[in-house]
Design brief:
Layout (H helix, E strand, L loop, with lengths): L52 E5 L6 E5 L12 E5 L1 E3 L3 E6 L2 E10 L7 E7 L9 E4 L5 E7 L5 E5 L6 H8 L6 H4 L11 H4 L7 E4 L11 H9 L3 E7 L3 H4 L15 E5 L1 H12 L4 E4 L1 H9 L10 E5 L14 E5 L6 H10 L1 H13 L10 E4 L1
Parallel strand pairs: 1-17, 3-12, 3-14, 4-11, 14-16
Antiparallel strand pairs: 1-2, 5-6, 5-8, 6-7, 7-10, 8-9, 9-10, 12-13, 13-15, 16-17
Helix pairs in contact: 8-9
Length: 376
């Protein structure tokens, strides 16, 4: 679910699906590479949402099936439980100019905008930005003071207008934080009004995310209701998708990569429902990698999920032993990302490599607006 060119280089990277690793316990970043023809990058979702393609991977047998997402329920049993991330994407991108040089544009990605005049943000381009510079939003000329840069490369920004908050400014003139590989392939090079619906799950209800939990984009309210009638219910967690999720791996090995912490919450109700399902031998199906990280970070050795609120920097590598999650609905992810590493960990590195190669050969649609995968 990468969200921006602020941290993500262009995704068209040459790859070697075989990969090598100096140690059986570490994953070399080159093992997370693969080559994708650019025409397979989806720039708009399928409509309706559930009409996209679905690849089904069976870990026990290695079988790979090719279906449609609306067929998902055929692989589930009454008593299974979906777990969804209810994070709502905010229109976190805003365009500005330098107050003392209006020919220079600066794009802001607000990473923690709320009901205050201060926020942290990624800026693009950032090489010439200095503390005390002033920016003006292009549409309403709202004045913004650059304060300082943090260790993680984010800038502190202060709105100078009276009674102005970042939440109100972004709702007024913000843009959806679509990934750069989508924007670059559109004639307009920008988001569209429809993206406020497309780049949002049908069940999103809690603000804060700067990238969509994209596995959930395939579910319509009608599909979730139909599954519930068949005894396949849904519970919710919250993970505020931020720069940690879409940051590319730039270290030599995956395990050296420092994942930026992201806020999460697993409620008492969700923990109780998971415990009930497990006691009845049902399966916990995580919808998206953010759900996996949230559940696994607060799971005990016996698989019990504790209600928990905090920030997680859990990085799931192929050596991870999964405690709670039995199945995963996910998208096809960018190379050299922790998202792909998590899918390797859950599905098995070689089997997932085979699945990705087959998806490319059969021309599946990739990345945030692309097709889906179910791993059981």
């Amino acid at each position: 679910m990468p969200a921006s060119h602020y941290a993500q280089a262009d995704e068209e990277i040459d790859i070697d699906l075989r990969g090598t690793c100096d140690s059986p316990h570490l994953m070399h970043v080159d093992e997370l590479d693969y080559e994708l023809p650019s025409h397979l990058i989806a720039t708009r979702p399928m409509e309706p949402r559930e009409s996209c393609r679905l690849m089904v991977i069976h870990r026990a047998t290695g079988q790979i099936e090719h279906r449609t997402f609306v067929d998902l329920g055929e692989y589930l049993n009454p008593g299974d439980l979906f777990v969804l991330n209810s994070a709502r994407v905010i229109p976190a991108r805003i365009f500005t100019i330098l107050a003392d040089d209006e020919s220079r544009r600066v794009e802001i990605l607000a990473t923690n905008a709320g009901a205050s005049s201060h926020c942290l943000a990624l800026l693009h381009p950032s090489h010439s930005i200095r503390p005390q510079m002033r920016l003006l939003s292009i549409e309403t000329r709202a004045p913004i003071q650059v304060v300082e840069r943090s260790e993680r490369g984010q800038w502190g920004l202060e709105l100078e207008g009276k009674n102005m908050t970042w939440r109100t400014l972004l709702e007024r003139e913000g843009h959806m934080p679509l990934p750069p590989y989508i924007l670059k392939r559109r004639a307009t090079k920008t988001d569209e009004p429809a993206d406020r619906i497309w780049y949002q799950t049908a069940y999103a209800d809690r603000d804060g995310a700067i990238a969509a939990p994209t596995a959930g984009l395939h579910f319509s309210r009608e599909m979730l209701a139909a599954l519930e009638k068949r005894g396949i219910a849904a519970a919710r967690i919250f993970l505020k998708v931020g720069i940690g999720t879409f940051q590319p791996v730039r270290t030599r090995t995956l395990e050296e990569h420092a994942l930026a912490p992201e806020e999460y919450e697993v409620s008492d109700e969700t923990a109780r429902r998971i415990a009930t399902v497990r006691a009845r031998k049902g399966r916990v199906i995580a919808v998206g990698t953010t759900v996996v990280r949230s559940l696994e970070c607060c799971a005990l050795e016996n698989g019990e999920v504790r209600p928990s609120t905090g920030a997680t920097d859990l990085l799931i590598a192929p050596s991870h032993r999964f405690r709670t999650v039995d199945g995963l609905v996910t998208n096809f992810h960018l190379p050299r990302t922790t998202l792909l590493a998590l899918v390797f960990a859950f599905g098995g590195t070689e089997l997932v490599r085979k699945a990705y190669a087959e998806a490319i050969a059969r021309e599946y649609r990739f990345y945030s607006y692309g097709d889906a995968m179910l791993i059981l």
